Amino acid sequence: MKKLYIETYGCQMNVADSEVVAAILSEEYTLTNTMQEADLLLINTCSVRDHAEQRVRARLRELAALKKGNASLLIGLLGCMAERVKEALLNEEEALDFIAGPDAYRTLPQLISRAQNRENPFNVLLSTQETYDDILPIRYDTNGVSAFISITRGCNNFCTYCVVPYTRGRERSRPPETILHEVEDLANNGYKELTLLGQNVNSYSWRNDKENMDFPDLIAAVASHVPHIRVRFATSHPKDISDKLLHTIARYPNICKHIHLPVQSGSDNMLNRMNRGYSREKYLQRVARIKELLPHCTLSTDIITGFCGETEKDHQDTLTLMETVGYASAFLFKYSVREGTLAAKKFTDDIPENVKARRFNEILTLQQQLSLNSNLKEVGKTVEVLVEGTSKRSNKQLFGRTSQNKVVVFDGGDRQPGDLVLVTIHRCTAATLIGK
Ligand code: SF4
Fold first, then answer.
1. pTM
2. Are 194 and 146 in contact (CB under 8 A)?
3. Each residue of 360-400: pLDDT tens digit?
4. Which residue intervals of the chain bear CATH 2.40.50?
5. Which of 86, 92, 115, 394 gets the highest tally of CB atoms within 10 A of its CB?
């Protein structure tokens, strides 16, 4: 059997896609963790920022050298960068033999056989139907405790700074029975946690003459199907956080009490320019509703600083919104232009780099304080932790997460990954709870 090595960059969607690719090629290839053994090397890429693409280009230069020593080695590029840059990549990067966009993975066997004939093939057609719903992924990049299930693909929101609608196409949802089949497969294989994935997971919608399911219906079906398994979901769009979803989360103890709710900015001026589809006030109303119906639920978010035209007042609005919400954690980014996006066409990237850096440090410093405040509330409490593995710091300690998605490091004794353990928290940092 020939050997396949997959290198995955970017988001969880890409990890889930790489597992689908491994399944599509499993008749001819078996996975290896040793790159030098590979007959086929696939790079699954991200395009969310220019930096992500530059990393891949540097990697391809390194791999060109590897190929010199192994002429039969085939190298293919997958993912958002393949879709954004398209066939030009084959001329720009000598290491590459073929490329396939996120909706073209079923054609990989044909692309590989044409690449073996040195035809430099590519397929970057986007689909309005493809969800790979009949393919059971091969779980190779996992700790055996948690796994991801893609339930939607693509996005229709066209936030002005984002490439995803162009690299992953229009939004489409998978049939619920194929999702429940994958849930069962994970349960039968001993997984203790699953995360439902999508660019806008809570925009999930499945209609046919027999069924009409929205996201609250789906997550309720999943949670009741495997009551002993933790259920998470990411990423939510604030416009689709319904009361129905919040009541559903409250009803099922195995749906984790954590919501990742990207806000991007606290300023209405910026939210309009970003085409986010909600106002500061609307966002805070949803947050207040979450705190009312799910008092023990933590919130995390994504924030972009230094977007085109951002004034000092806009920046202050972001800081005050962060304080009002009290996020437990956040992913913070400085705006970088993405060619082909609406923002690149309509706006000027007019915030100087040093101003972006100063504003970034201010939101980072604030978030570190908010994360510490959130964790300090747990000191002295006993929390339920799903063990994920051994702590990086000491092999006498284990680590895992609470339902609120807080990382806990503790003296675990003879406990194993997959165990649910009650841990008393003695102290904390901004990032970690420490306990026994
Ligand atoms: S919701 Fe906006 S930021 Fe998220 S994937 Fe869609 S276009 Fe991009």
1. 0.94
2. yes
3. 999 999 999 999 999 999 999 999 999 999 988 788 899 99
4. 382-435
5. 115
Q: CB neighbours of 338 closer than 8 A, spacing ≥ 6?
A: 47, 48, 49, 50, 161, 162, 163, 344
What average pLDDT does the structure give for the chain?
A: 95
d(CA 83, CA 391): 38
Tell me the per-residue pLDDT of 27-46, one tens digit each, with 9 for 90 and over.
999 999 999 999 999 999 99
Best residue among 47, 84, 162, 271 to mutate for probing ligand 1, ranked by most atoms within 8 Å of CB = 162
Comparing CA positions, the residue from 175, 44, 152, 180 lying closest to residue 108 is 44
Range list for CATH 3.80.30.20 in the chain: 146-373
| Residues of each domain in the chain carrying CATH 3.40.50.2300 | 2-123
Query: Is 162 close to ligand 1, i.e. is its CB under 6 Å away?
Result: yes
Please give the distance of CA 16 from its chain centroid, rounded to a whole number: 9
Among 47, 159, 163, 303, the mutation site with the greatest number of ligand 1 atoms within 8 A of its Cβ is: 159
* Statement: 2-123 belongs to CATH 1.10.3720.10: no
Pocket lining: 165 vs ligand 1, CB cutoff 6 Å: yes
**Residue in 284, 204, 194, 300 with CA at minimum distance from that of residue 244:** 204
Closest Cα to atom 8, ligand 1: which residue?
162
Q: Whose CA is nearest to atom 1 of ligand 1?
A: 157
Which of these CATH numbers, 3.30.460.10, 3.40.50.2300, 3.80.30.20, 3.30.70.2190, describes 146-373? Answer: 3.80.30.20
Rounded distance between C-alpha atoms, residue 351 and residue 180, angstroms: 47
Looking at the domain that runs over 382-435, which CATH code has it been given?
A: 2.40.50
